[in-house]
Amino acid sequence: MDVIVITGTPGAGKTTVLNKAIEMLEMRYDVINYGNEMFRVAEENKIVNDRDEMRKLPPETQKRIQKLAAKTIAEKAENAPIIVDTHCTIKTKKGYLPGLPKWILEELNPTAILLVEADPEEIINRRSSDETRMRDREHVLDIEDHQQLNRAVAMSYAMMTGATVKIIKNHDEKLEDAVRQMKDILG
User: Fold this and answer.
1) Residue 187 pLDDT > 90, yes or no?
2) CA distances from 93 to 38, 90, 97, 132 (A)
3) What is the model's pTM?
4) Sign of CA dihedral 1, 103, 162, 13
5) Is the dihedral of CA 31, 95, 160, 169 positive or negative?
6) Which ranges of the chain does DSSP label H, i.e. alpha helix?
7) Cβ atoms < 10 Å from Cβ of 156
8) Rounded to a whole number, what is the distance in angstroms from the first to the last CA of the chain?
9) Which of 38, 44, 89, 90 could bridge 97 with an S-S bond, Cβ 3.0-4.6 Å?
């Protein structure tokens, strides 16, 4: 079973870097967005009718959905290598939540965790120019804090699983460098 986790602060460009790296690889991965998988599982089990209902569910129901999604991803990883596109931490009004709590890590058991980062100013500019998303406005220091927290949490995930952690810098005008780094790791 080969599971690789790709994560990054919203606006760092993790999905963009991943998609371009995947295009260049000979080896094929199944790429699964964890949030999409959670919604698929919840909808299939008739827990929700639309994605907006997900965040309104009681915490215990959300944990159950997380576990079911992790189980289905782990089952898929038995047949093909998997890349899980997710968030290392999730910023909420009450503080940060781990994107991969213990029960998810135990099920997925990733071999590598790749953090895509950019300078906070770059992230702010990307978020403000992305008309397809409705993202919260944050200051440079908030983004710096979030990225530092992601690093710490990624290392704690690695401590629990034995996974490696690699930071990939995705700076403006240097997308090719970030793509090359990710491609080299993915093989």
Assistant:
1) no
2) 21, 10, 10, 23
3) 0.88
4) positive
5) positive
6) 14-24, 34-44, 59-77, 102-108, 120-129, 140-161, 175-186
7) 16
8) 16
9) 90
